[in-house]
Structures are given as C-alpha cells and as structure tokens.
Protein: Methylated-DNA-[protein]-cysteine S-methyltransferase
Amino acid sequence: MSAGDLEALLRVTSATYRAGRPPDVAVGTYEGALGRLVLAVTAKGVVACSFEDEHTIFERLTRVVGGLVGPDARRLDPVRRELDAYFSRRLRAFTTPVDLQLATPFARTLLQMTMAVPYGTSTTTADLGARIGRPQALRAVGNALNANPVCVIVPCHRVRDRESYPGGTTALERLLRIEG
Structure:
C-alpha cells in the first residue's frame, strides 16, 4: 500500500483524520529480506512490525491504541534503517524502543523475556514457561509468541521449538540463518 493509498484509506475510515496533522501512530511498510512488513510507531516506540496486512494492523491500532493513525515516514525511517542493518548482518541488537501495548499482559511478559535472548542463540517454550512459573503452559506460551505484534525486533524467532511462526516457516528459517 502506497502512502497515497493509506492517505485515502484514512480519509474514509478515520473520523479523527486531518491531513497535515502529525499522526499519533505513524504507519507504513518495509520491504526487505522477509518481504513486506507493516510498521507502526507510537510516542513510546515500535508498536507493530508485522507480517499481517495493512488493514488488519490499522484496525487493531485504531481499536487498541486510538488517536490519529497515519503515514509519517520520518518517524518510521529509524526503524527501517535498523531493519536494513539487521538483515545485512550489521546490527545484532535493536535500539529502537518497543511499545507492547498490542500484546496481552501474558504475552508482554514472554516477549520481554525473548528480548533478553542474545543474538545467535535460542531458548525453548519450556524454558520460558518455567521462567514465568508455568512449566506446563507450553501451548499458551507458543500462542502468545505467535501473536507477537513486533516480529523480528522482538525476537520470538529465537524460541525454536514452536509449531509455527507469525511470518511462516520460510521467514523463520531465514531469520535463524541471518543470526547464524
């Protein structure tokens, strides 16, 4: 979706949209090694780096985050630069702040733990479950990781024994190859 298409979508769907006003939530896309990712940034940080389509992310942002949602390349550029550096193996740790408000409280806890898993290493759902005091909750841990709204940046791909990955098996394998 181009910036013009997004602008047209916003004019029709957002009661609060005002052309020229900086959005509360900046949205756009990133084309890279994994294909298209939908990005969104709030004042707190990256709230979405997702394999889902733009309309789904826009709807979720409008419902959960609220405020004016719209294009703002200037606010997305730092995230795009870090993704470029990560995919070219020049970046091992993202420095852009993360805003996990699209995740459930349970998922937030798990996603924060995955951010502590070092580049090039991995953990398991059993380890994460044990660390939060729920060693039998393997399916709940896997489901929470699969709902990661900030994929790649919040490295749920480093949890290797899951049945699925939000971007699919090909994306998961590519991320693991990048990290060696």
